[in-house]
Amino acid sequence: MARGGEPALPEDVVERVLSQLDREALARDCLAYVSVPSETGREQEGAEFLAGAMRAQGWQVELDEAARDRPNVLVRLPGAGGGGEGGEGGDASGRCLLVNGHVDTIPIGKSWPARRDERWIWGRGAEDMKGGLVAMVHAARAIERAGVKLRGDLWLSGVVGHETPVGKKEGPQRLIGRIRNAEAGASGVLTPDAILITEGPCAIWRASLGSAIFHLTLRDSRPPVHTLRVPYAQNPVRGLRNALEELDRLSAELATRPVRSLAGADQLNVGMVVAGDYPNRLPIEARITGTRRWGPGQSASSVREELGELAERAARASGMSTLSGEARLEAAREPFETPTDDPLVAALRWSGGRVSGAAPEEIGLALVGDASLYANELGLPCAYYGPGYETAHSDAERVSIDRLLHIAQVYALTMMSYCGIG
């Protein structure tokens, strides 16, 4: 063990494994993967590419369909069991680590075509998150080529259906069902002790706020008649002022609540305000759509109730007895936070420090990813560690080749530190 109770590995093993990672090979494979389209809903070619990269290592690959022609990709690298270095705190056979990412991307659109120079790789999916998946494969390959045997099982996975709104989390939900039900696939039963996700900033991202899109609706019981028949003072759209004032008050109140998450304070914002369907027709429905984010001690249910009461107050404040208010949530995700002393976080902290000379920053983000699903539905510790989150979803998406090498090194050491070595 290193100073402060952190996990550690023999230096000769560390050097042997790190020497197997090649910057140029990482760049070549990442560029090849970015060149393969895998938009959400049409991921098969991207899944097949990842499967091919895994088969090239001599690994048995499982394609597990989350939806028709949309397979998750899975590989199990069985552990040796028994005693050895690393993996302290687990049982004698070592801990089981699932390393995970998504193979789908948002639409290519006007994104720059796949290309590279000495520093960067450009193209859709470079940062989010084909670079992380390539680094995952190279990290596991480096361990094998160095002749190191893990004690615990290591699973590598790529899922489909991540990017909303086209994706409905088909891949993550299929993975969750398989773990929860202890289903025996071609690769065996997947029983991870933790999940490492290969995307996000180059830091230990171990907390996210809960999040949901909210639709706050004011609805009038009168028919949609010509506006000549209704005075402006009785126009339902005027209730939007009351609703926005209520949201102003809620936003101010959220700012006074204690911050209980590494991911920061509760948030509220509005993205759309819509009313009516014709210039001189009474708008019998007005809707405010936005995003609400929350920390521990709240839930999607309590947030929906809070916004529902807000909508009802706004309707009453309008002075129009024909107006009612309601709220509903869409794409709700609960918050998660993995403790700093969790073995996965400790393994990432030690590994990042060994690679770069300083322990990585531990962060929380308001941003929601698949860890929110895995942590809440499976009760497993989760963390992200990626090459960056600066250009994802932009037309100038790119990933640093030096960062690819860095994360591959961190992943390899984390795999050994967490699973243990024989």
Question: Domains counted in the coordinates: how many?
Answer: 2
Which series of helices and strands comes N to C?
A: HHHEEEEEHEHEEEEEHEEHEEHEHEEH
Largest β sheet strand count, sense and barrel closure: 6 strands, mixed
- Give the total of beta strands: 18
Question: What overall form do the CA principal axes indicate?
Answer: elongated
The fraction of residues in strands falls at 15-25%
Radius of gyration: 25 Å
CATH topology of the largest domain: Aminopeptidase
Q: What proportion of the residues is helical, as a percent range?
A: 25-40%
Low-confidence runs: none
Distance between the termini: 16 Å
CATH class of the largest domain: Alpha Beta
CATH superfamily of the largest domain: Zn peptidases
Descriptive report:
- The chain is α+β, with helices and mostly antiparallel strands and 422 residues long.
- The chain has two domains: 3-207 and 335-419, Zn peptidases (Aminopeptidase, 3-Layer(aba) Sandwich); 210-333, Alpha-Beta Plaits.
- The protein has ten helices and 18 strands.
- The protein has helices at 11-18, 23-34, 44-55, 126-145, 170-180, 239-254, 300-317, 343-356, 370-378, 401-419; strands at residues 61-67, 70-77, 97-102, 115-116, 120-122, 154-159, 184-185, 188-189, 194-197, 204-208, 210-220, 267-275, 285-294, 323-333, 336-337, 362-365, 382-384, 398-400.
- The strands form five sheets. It has a six-stranded mixed sheet with strand order 1-2-6-3-9-17, sandwiched between helices.
- Helix 8 packs across helix 10 (401-419).
- The longest helix is centred in the first third of the chain and has 20 residues, at 126-145.
- The protein is elongated, with a radius of gyration of 25 Å.
- The two termini are 16 Å apart.
